[in-house]
Fold this protein.
Amino acid sequence: MYIILLNVFRPTWIHAFAGIHADTAWTFKKLIYISLNVSCLHILRASVPLWLSNYNLRSSYQFWTIERRKWIFCYTGLLPIFAIFIVLRIIPIVRTFTLSFYESNLVNPQSRFIGIENYRNLFGDHLFRTALSNTTIFAAGTVVLSVGIGLALALLVNRTLRFSPFYETVYFLPVITPMVPVSIIWKWIYDPSFGLLNYILSWFGIDPVGWLVYPNIGLWAIVIMSAWKLVGYNMVLFLVGLRNIPDEYMEAAALDGAGRFDLFLYVTLPLLKPILLLVMVINTISSYNVFTQVYVMTAGSQGTSANPVRVLVYDIWENAFRYFRMGYASAEAVILFLIILTLTLIQFRTMRNKEV
């Protein structure tokens, strides 16, 4: 019946029935295919346990045990998720690695294998080196500030039990606010003509500063904004770790004469290492993938080679979708992936060695 339905719903039949264009008919056919597949999957998932319960052969009963039926039921439900993950994640990653060895252009569909030529050209590209350097500086500054301030706030909020939920909510608000409006607000704050920051500095006789223009401070201005947005997320994670530390450890250390700094350094911090590792990995990945705030706050002016806030993801986007150099952009994406993977492994190894 399923095969018959698929053959009945051909594009010509749909076109004649609905009076729509052939391309739209093909799209409609795909929707029907998906709907029928999902429907049949649910029918099979519901009917298999019923069929098994009425099947009386001893050998089949021994094979289709309750545990095995549960296993089949669970993995049948997870199958669509695995399929989506493969289509949206695994295949693009493999395709990106493959394209990095080709001279591929969206305008010209013919791809030519060139080996490691894209990688060789990358390190001779001044824009790529500038973007990589800026991204590394941005990531280092953002991780240090957001992790340090987040941990300090978590320690303070953890000691303030009365208003703790209020402070957690206030500090977490920037995290749930979309990046684009936050970037626009901070761009107004940094504005040299009517920005709030320059207005406050004018009280002390300081002339207006172009915070997003000057090479020495443009990138750090965005680092401060990005760290401010991540602090609340880090604080909440650190609070979870702090509240899971048994009070007996603190009391025993205090009885041995440990002060507040000793308690933090030798009791609290070692017990927070798993949370600290998680926070650092998440912040590192997020910082190396920076794009939105830099693009919005600099009005897309990263195209100049001397621009102090040109970052790696913008360089990838520009080569891929402005110059249509898909092979070159894929090589940049692979380099970014390897950098993040290497830093993550180093962080795991460092934490593991400290625990030993």
In short: The beta strands are 102-103, 112-113. Residues 2-107 form one domain. Residues 133 and 311 are 8 Å apart (CA to CA).
